[in-house]
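Before a colleague's protein record goes any further, I have to sign it off. My question to you is simply how this chain folds and whether the tokens agree. I do not need a full report, just your reasoning and any doubts. This is what I was given:
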Amino acid sequence: NNEEGFTSLLNWIKELKHMKNLDTTIVGMEPTGHYWINLSKWLVKQNIDVVTVNPHHVKRNKENRDNTPSKSDKK
């Protein structure tokens, strides 16, 4: 949750956009705790669209995809 990490994320986003030939970016964040707020504000300043997603829906979607309750997976 610092400038170096934020810049690293932005570079990764740009890399993916180039590799996949994409024009737009939308970052979805679970608004749990307070850790997402600084990144969200920073991304908006970088002209990246940020949306919040309901943690309950994320959990249900993940469980539907692989039927595991673990939070330590790549998803």
About this structure: The chain has a mean pLDDT of 86. Residues 3-20 form the longest helix (18 residues). Residues 3-66 form one domain.
